[in-house]
Amino acid sequence: MMNLLIVNDEELTADTMKEDICWKDYGIDEVFVAYNAVSARTCINSGNIDILLCDIEMPRESGLALLKWVRENNKLIECIFLTCHASFEYARQAISLGCREYLLMPARYEDIGAAVKKVADRLEAARSESILHEYGEAALQNSADVSDWKSIQKKDPGELTREIKQYIKKSLGEESLSVASVAEQFHFHPVYINRVFRSQTGKSISQFIIDERMRLAEKLLKSGNYSVNSVALMVGYHNYLSFFSAFKKHFGCTPSAIGQKNEKTRILQ
């Protein structure tokens, strides 16, 4: 059983797509329609959705924001994005959220169906892998051969989690560090690897990355050897405002305040 949810604020487009495409030919059993992200979340929470066919540009809440919610809530759903703009930033964000399919509109129904069939086949293959339980995907990247995959399958969740932690700590300075990049490194689907990590640590991979970045940032600032801008780059934030916001949310004070406090302590000593 494979169900699809079309999410598009243009009601006529969504309804026509649902009725005019012979979804059975592309491996889809049932098609649902939502005209905004709020309705989409309601449908997703029903637990019957396997694939999102989602417009990116929607009023109030974009398709990217919807997929981010899907990932944060560990929904076991694949996504295909539709957009009228060939934006590199859209593509970058989509990839970071584990979305592999990205179609530029207008697209032929045959092309949309082919993309859906590709994802549906991938999900069916993934479901046959017992290690991934009811869903998950073994992403055999170019560097992974069959023997690599067999060894990964036998990996204990605790051992896998320890290796993930080590990899993250070594990669904190990389701006691209994310759930998606960790999943790619270990050849698992982002949803599955995040679930394993959360079961072992009580927190998501994204939260662990933030916590480790903030811990390292605090240590570097307290050393007094680096400027705030330098520290931001060293912990993977190439946008200072993003670093400032994350730091203040984590510690309840600004990065400068940490450095100033440590400077006063050294003077008193």
Structure report:
This protein has three domains: 3-128, Response regulator (Rossmann fold, 3-Layer(aba) Sandwich), CATH 3.40.50; 146-202; 207-268, Homeodomain-like (Arc Repressor Mutant, subunit A, Orthogonal Bundle). It has 13 helices and five strands. The chain has helices spanning 11-20, 37-44, 63-72, 88-96, 109-127, 146-153, 157-170, 179-186, 190-201, 205-223, 228-234, 240-251, 255-268; strands at 3-7, 30-34, 51-55, 78-83, 101-104. The radius of gyration is 21 Å and the shape is elongated. It is of the alpha/beta class and 269 residues long. It has a five-stranded parallel sheet with strand order 2-1-3-4-5, with helices on both faces. Helix 10 runs parallel beside helix 13 (255-268). Strand 4 (78-83), helix 4 (88-96) and strand 5 (101-104) form a beta-alpha-beta unit. 56% of the residues lie in helices and 9% in strands.
What features would you highlight for this structure?
single chain; 269 residues; alpha/beta; Rossmann fold; 3 domains; five-stranded parallel β-sheet; 9% strand
